[in-house]
Specification:
This protein is mainly beta and 175 residues long. It has helices spanning 5-14, 101-110, and strands at residues 20-27, 36-40, 46-50, 67-76, 79-84, 116-125, 130-135, 138-143, 154-163, 168-173.
Length: 175
């Protein structure tokens, strides 16, 4: 399923990256242990949890109809990518962050909400209108609406959110 630009922007408004949303497992389209599961968020687009976020043993996957709490990771064509916050819905070894709790605490002190960083665009993803920005020893994914920046472009960005569950820093271009 493809998502128009207007649908993508509407999904971003309804389900901002980093928000916690409640959803119900609606389907396991490829069967347990394969591609992941679909989550009904009460409105379109539907949510999706990747197989890598779920328990290794498919018999431990949440059943269709199970309701849980999720963090919005990303918007992809036709779906909202989700990370399960309920421990029973994800694998025991699932670790989204490359940083330990102590390292994340240091990063949040170094880059509080409102802080400005100088970053360089390292990748551009036109399909879901995002680009990655590297700064110091960190990186962030930034959504765009109008024109994509070029890889290698450097500029100033502002920290808008620090996501505790997935240890991510959200940035926007500084104005």
């Amino acid at each position: 399923m493809t998502m128009s630009i207007n649908e993508l922007f509407a999904a971003r408004l309804a389900f901002p990256v980093g928000d916690r949303v409640r959803g119900t497992v609606g389907a396991i389209p490829m069967g347990a242990g394969r591609a992941g599961l679909l989550v009904d968020l009460g409105q379109l687009p539907q949510g999706r949890v990747d197989v890598l976020q779920l328990p290794d043993d498919p018999t431990d996957w949440p059943a269709v109809g199970k309701t849980g709490l999720f963090e919005v990771l990303q918007h992809r064509p036709g779906q909202v990518r989700l990370f399960p916050l309920d421990a029973g819905m994800r694998g025991r070894r699932t670790r989204f962050s490359r940083w330990s709790g102590v390292e994340w605490a240091a990063i949040t002190r170094r880059y509080p909400v409102g802080a400005h960083v100088l970053g360089t665009v390292t990748n551009v993803f036109p399909g879901n209108r995002e680009y990655t920005v590297a700064f110091d020893d960190c990186w962030s994914v930034v959504e765009y609406e109008d024109n994509a920046p070029s890889v290698g472009w450097a500029g100033s960005f502002r920290v808008t959110r620090l996501l505790e569950w997935t240890h991510r820093i959200l940035l926007v271009p500084a104005t």
